[in-house]
């Protein structure tokens, strides 16, 4: 929220009546988002802990399961998300300059990259389905039947990635709604900090994936 | 882009420098991790992989999320969650590592 | 209308024709500012949202209390003839689920915290008023799911939802109940988030951290637990739902999963949740005791730090719920040793309350009676907690009525007494009306006596070996069980009284002045009930809290 936000013309935050000053209001918004992100971190930490415990209990089966995940799609998707973080940072920088059109373009690019991530993820699930890597589907054969404990890790992979996907989908939805608002005149004069606050959320979904990718795909290979 | 004045272009470049460098650093670190994961060059490579992942997380927090420009309170909030994750892992592992 | 001596002579409250019209220096209070249904259900006023919560959790308290009464009814006879086994299992599960998640956890924070924190720190509202309203709707949505599971036929897993019982063996409506509890967690998170941000950013000029009332400190500590613990149970419950719906196997030994992992994740939240229930109560007591001793709170900073200390230490002790459940011996020893550390900040608080009472000018009005009851029962509940943290004793009394008695001394003797004490203390502030003091004292005594007759025999029962969660028991335990059930009827009467006379007071009570107890704190500087926007002008805070006539000598040095 800090750097350069006050500088540009037509960029600012409108005071809501129950706050005393704009500074107080901005500070509250930033702190509120960080408090929310704390809870997101601990939410995913429970899943990461489960992954670690599975690895400790069944090392071979977990390795076998991890080797069957689509490593390269995961890597590609990480690239996509890192790029989306770059465009989100771009949107924030331009919002501080008051360059509304460029900001809106960066926001649309961010949403598009998020959607691309989901598309790759969908393809990955589809491929997994065809390779019989969905052990939670009771009626279907499971490719790694010989290592029964591997199903736990594969199922956990689905819970973790779909929870992350849910966060990303929510993020894209909010981003598109905000892009629509932000494309109208006067937005940056009243709500510039919304871009910053949402940016924190977007970067954090990225951060969660940066953790999920090695934990699910890489370290157990 | 084409219709931008030189001045505007300079401002844009100045503002995008850090984000672009950050993304470059993240992609580089990701490259290291992917290479390690694909080749598995030595035993216990996971230690190095987790260190690389940690470096990426710190980069995002410190630079992308601009914690470095925030007051101490926000820094505390950014860090305290990781500390609590540490409690969760450490106390649970006292069980699993000593069964 | 003015029956009885304690009732005032002013007559009807809400339709009082003598209520003067609002003026600039005396604006309409928050109850009368608007009258439509919409102005209640879409309000963003923290005071109105507090009352929405108060009504909801009271309804859940009634559900929880009725099921508790039925459980005690079943236990009057040793042969389990009152209900079927299934029905009995469902009754104690509903009692536990409703009381823990729909009464105790939101009880003090969502009602008193919501109403009082902005008033106490001199703010116009919480930082995020819409989020505050949303948290109530989230709460009601979760409640709806849980009620649906009850209506469809109930749940029989106990409030802990331990797997594999909850995933592989139970044939009841586990998933809707789990969804309900998961959703309610988000309402806690939103409330906690709002409090943390509000306390950090919305304090009035001069309201430094060490001028905050202890009530605000304890709510800050509670909110940290809301934020840091709740997501972990959310994810544990999500995994449990997946386990039941898709048999993902992570908690299922049949596939190589580990049920103990669920317990780790569950207790990482649910042990700190004890402090979600206890800390706000400690805040209430820390307000009541100085007011009715007319004496400065003894050791203010220690009490404040103890709240943060409790909220931190409580995250290191969850394994003491799992001593006999298959965790490693070393882990059990570590959790046992760490659990003893909890006694230190708890004792700091109790010593400081008693030191505040010492040489104070005591007024034994209703809130103070509850506070005194709280201190005594909390000591007993806390000390028996040390028994349970001891590995050897825990082996002996694990899963017996000793545990049940212990946590009811904390949950009922602690939280519920603090809740009722706070309700009587701030009722004039909430409603602008005084209740009839004599009735208040009678019900405080009834609750104290009824509570002890109900739960003290359970310590003995547990020590003698009566297991919890069974309604068929050896006949030699019958006498103590009847005694306990008899006590619960006294307790029930004690609960019904306040519901009647407090509601009666809303319409027929004597008008309350702004500060009926001669108490300190910003909430007593505004009218009763407060104006819709809390303060007519932004308050300034020039002095320490608890600036009562009698000052304590804390260090041997004489202040003043």
List keywords for this structure.
heterotrimer; B: 99 residues; mainly alpha; C: 560 residues; Cytochrome C Oxidase, Chain A; two-stranded antiparallel sheet; 16 helices; 1% strand; globular; disordered C terminus; transmembrane helix (chain B); transmembrane (chain B); Oxidase (chain B); membrane (chain B)
Low-confidence stretches of chain A: 1-6
How many distinct folded domains of chain A?
A: 1
Total of helices of chain C: 16
What is the residue-averaged pLDDT of chain A? 94
By CATH, the topology of chain A is Four Helix Bundle (Hemerythrin (Met), subunit A)
Please report the number of helical segments of chain A: 6
- Helical content class of chain C: 55-70%
The CATH homologous superfamily of chain C corresponds to Cytochrome c oxidase-like, subunit I domain
Task: Domain count of chain C, please report it.
Answer: 1
Task: Please give the oligomerization state of what you see.
Answer: heterotrimer
What's the gyration radius of chain A in Å? 21 Å
The CATH architecture of chain C comes to: Up-down Bundle
Catalogue the unreliable spans of chain C.
Answer: 1-17, 556-560
- Shape assignment of chain C: globular
Give the CATH architecture of chain A.
Up-down Bundle
Largest interface: A-B, 50 and 47 residues
Measured distance between first and last alpha carbons of chain C: 50 Å
Please report the total strand number of chain A as a whole number: 0
Radius of gyration of chain C: 23 Å
């Amino acid at each position: 929220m800090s750097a350069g936000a006050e500088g540009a013309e037509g960029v600012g935050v409108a005071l809501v009546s129950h706050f005393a000053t704009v500074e107080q209001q901005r500070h509250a918004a930033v702190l509120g988002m960080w408090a929310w992100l704390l809870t997101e971190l601990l939410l995913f930490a429970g899943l990461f802990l489960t992954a670690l415990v599975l690895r400790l209990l069944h090392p071979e089966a977990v390795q076998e399961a991890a080797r069957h995940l689509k490593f390269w799609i995961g890597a590609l998707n990480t690239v996509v998300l890192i790029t989306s973080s770059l465009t989100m940072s771009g949107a924030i920088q331009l919002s501080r300059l008051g360059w509304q059109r460029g900001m809106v373009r960066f926001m649309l690019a961010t949403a598009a990259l998020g959607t691309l991530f989901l598309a790759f993820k969908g393809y990955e699930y589809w491929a997994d389905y065809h390779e019989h890597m969905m052990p939670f589907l009771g009626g279907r054969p499971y490719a790694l039947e010989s290592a029964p404990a591997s199903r736990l890790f594969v199922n956990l992979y689905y819970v973790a990635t779909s929870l992350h996907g849910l966060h990303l989908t929510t993020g894209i939805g909010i981003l598109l709604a905000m892009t629509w608002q932000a494309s109208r005149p006067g937005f940056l004069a009243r709500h510039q900090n919304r871009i910053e606050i949402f940016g924190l959320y977007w970067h954090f979904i990225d951060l969660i994936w940066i953790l999920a990718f090695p934990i699910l795909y890489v370290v157990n290979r | 882009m084409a219709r931008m004045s030189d001045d505007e272009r300079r401002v844009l470049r100045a503002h995008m420098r850090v984000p672009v460098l950050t993304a470059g650093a993240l992609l580089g670190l990701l490259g290291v991790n992917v290479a390690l994961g694909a080749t598995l060059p030595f035993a216990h490579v996971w230690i190095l992989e987790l260190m690389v992942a940690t470096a990426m997380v710190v980069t995002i927090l410190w630079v992308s999320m601009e914690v470095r420009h925030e007051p101490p309170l926000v820094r505390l909030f950014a860090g305290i969650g990781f500390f609590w994750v540490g409690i969760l892992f450490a106390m649970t592992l006292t069980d699993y590592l000593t069964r | 209308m003015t029956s009885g001596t304690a009732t005032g002579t002013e007559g009807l409250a809400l339709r009082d024709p003598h209520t003067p019209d609002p003026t600039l220096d005396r604006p309409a209070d928050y109850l009368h500012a608007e009258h439509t249904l919409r102005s209640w259900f879409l309000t963003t006023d923290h005071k109105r949202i507090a009352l929405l919560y108060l009504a909801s959790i009271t309804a859940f308290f009634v559900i929880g209390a009725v099921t508790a009464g039925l459980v005690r009814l079943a236990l009057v006879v040793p042969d389990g003839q009152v209900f079927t086994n299934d029905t009995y299992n469902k009754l104690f599960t509903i009692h536990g689920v409703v009381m823990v998640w729909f009464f105790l956890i939101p009880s003090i924070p969502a009602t008193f915290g919501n109403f009082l924190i902005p008033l106490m720190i001199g703010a116009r509202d919480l930082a995020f008023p819409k989020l505050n309203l949303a948290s109530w709707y989230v709460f009601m949505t979760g409640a709806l799911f849980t009620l649906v599971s009850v209506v469809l036929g109930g749940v029989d897993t106990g409030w802990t939802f331990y797997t594999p019982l909850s995933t592989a063996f139970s044939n009841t409506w586990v998933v809707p109940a789990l969804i309900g509890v998961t959703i309610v967690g988000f309402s806690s998170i939103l409330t906690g988030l709002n409090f943390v941000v509000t306390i950090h950013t919305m304090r009035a000029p001069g309201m430094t951290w060490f001028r905050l009332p202890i009530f605000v400190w304890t709510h800050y500590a509670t909110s940290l637990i809301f934020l840091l613990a709740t997501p972990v149970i959310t994810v544990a419950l999500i995994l449990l739902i997946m386990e039941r719906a898709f048999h993902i196997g992570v908690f299922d030994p049949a596939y190589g999963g580990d049920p103990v992992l669920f317990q780790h994740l569950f207790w990482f939240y649910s042990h700190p949740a004890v402090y979600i229930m206890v800390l706000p109560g400690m805040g209430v007591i820390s307000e009541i005791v100085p007011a009715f001793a007319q004496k400065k709170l003894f050791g203010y900073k220690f009490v404040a730090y103890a709240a943060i200390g409790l909220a931190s230490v409580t995250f290191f002790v969850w394994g003491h719920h799992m001593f006999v459940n298959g965790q490693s011996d070393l882990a059990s020893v570590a959790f046992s040793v760490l659990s003893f550390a909890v006694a230190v900040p708890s004792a700091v608080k109790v010593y400081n309350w008693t030191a505040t009472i010492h040489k104070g000018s005591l007024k034994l009005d209703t809130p103070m009676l509850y506070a005194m009851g709280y201190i005594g029962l909390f000591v007993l509940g806390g000390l028996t907690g040390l028994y349970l943290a001891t590995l050897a004793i825990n082996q002996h009394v694990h899963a017996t009525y000793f545990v049940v008695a212990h946590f009811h001394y904390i949950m009922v003797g602690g939280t519920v007494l603090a809740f009722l004490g706070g309700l009587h203390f701030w009722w004039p502030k909430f409603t602008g009306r005084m209740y009839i003091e004599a009735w208040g004292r009678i019900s405080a005594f009834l609750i104290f006596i009824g509570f002890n007759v109900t739960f003290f025999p359970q310590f003995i029962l547990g020590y003698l070996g009566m297991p919890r969660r069974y309604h068929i028991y050896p006949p030699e335990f019958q006498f103590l069980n009847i005694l306990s059930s008899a006590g619960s009827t006294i307790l029930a009467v004690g609960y019904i009284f306040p519901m009647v006379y407090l509601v009666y007071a809303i319409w027929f009570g004597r008008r309350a002045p702004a500060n009926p107890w001669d108490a300190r704190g910003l909430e007593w500087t505004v009218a009763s009930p407060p104006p819709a926007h809390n303060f007519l002008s932004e308050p300034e805070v020039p002095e320490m809290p608890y600036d009562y006539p009698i000052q304590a000598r804390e260090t041997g040095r004489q202040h003043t």
